[in-house]
Design goal:
four-stranded antiparallel β-sheet; seven-stranded mixed β-sheet; Aspartate Aminotransferase, domain 2; 423 residues; binds pyridoxal-5'-phosphate; Aspartate Aminotransferase, domain 1; 39% helix; 14 helices; globular; alpha/beta; 17 strands; single chain
Length: 423
Amino acid sequence: MMATALRIENPAGTSHHPGFLADTVAEDFPILHQRVHGRPLVYLDNAATTQKPRAVVEAMSRFYATDYANVHRGVYTLGARATGRFEGARARVQRFIHAPSPEEIIFVRGTTEGINLVASTFGEQHVQAGDDVLVTEMEHHSNIVPWQVLCQRKGARLRVVPIDDRGELDLEALAGLLGPRTRILAVAHVSNALGTLNPINEIVAMAHARGVPVLVDGAQAAPHLPLDVAALDADFYVFSSHKMYGPDGIGVLYGKRKLLEAMPPYQTGGDMIRSVSFERTTYDDLPHKFEAGTPAIAAAVGLHAAIDYLEAIGMAAIAREEEALLAHAVARLEAIPGVRLVGKAAHRAGAVSFVLEGVHPHDIATILDSRGVAIRAGHHCAQPVMDRFGVPATARVSVGMYNTRRDIDTLVEAVYETKEVMG
Ligand code: PLP
């Protein structure tokens, strides 16, 4: 019997009552039921990482207690069971993102490693001196630096699609930058610093019309939106388990089979070879070619449980409830005198960034913590975004499926108190 307390009577999640979802899942997240500095914890740093439901923690602990062994090696029963669970997780990810086949699902450590993998293999093969690599001004550092290093090594140009004052991508500029020397476009589905939800279908179509492949950084989309990489036609799509209620230490790189097959391995060693001699090594087929060494086995089992959990609720229901919650957060924050939102995109997912006149974001986060409210202050690993808006840092509120309007109201009260304390 699964000990998870997921009590969803209505798996399609058709309720429009805000807070319905959060109230339903609250019991599944024991960590949230504690006091911090004497106040009930309000966790609003979900863009950094999400908390884990019992279903995930228990799936991993059961796996360690009953089925754990190394994968793809042992002919003995435990080894076969562990391999079955690991490959079962891969198939679960495939269904979750609607990838054509499980061989196109590469397990990596997280989004960062997935992007580095593509930059050092596909990038190494396709980017030459004088070529362009296109990123956007709203990228996380992990979708900038690997490309920058590649460009420096190759004598290629890193070109940047600008964002406007609302924090939306300038699609006209994108069209102008997509040229005959562009070898790849690397773009976020959702911005972690601004919360902007990009028109990713349109962006991929624009790039493809010019013959440019696209890597989509889905780190901030996977926890919030239904994904269909086949319909999107993304060439590469990357995301991290820990941001979608799964364990840390594992993430996913989806790539189109024909691209992955043509790419050289990223790391070499055990588990990725077909044969090795001192003269010559041949590599295994997909996905193993890209999974050298012992993978994060229990983490894969945990990710499987997280996806089961997400889909029992329904990604469409999560997207709908979180959208309403964010609209509430935007309206309430905007109404506070002295608060300025950084990023006002028409379409948003996950996060709202703001600054408060005369108060450093770190002071806001510190005072909020004393009220039990956990938010992030800083550059959010997106320093070019901070430069674009002329701020050193922002305070960022990022929601998950367990957050309620009450949480937002508590946050807003604490921002008012911050004004009093600092004023
Ligand atoms: N890309 C985006 C948009 C992110 O928000 C993050 C994490 O904050 C990353 C990439 C990096 O993810 P990870 O640290 O899990 O590799």
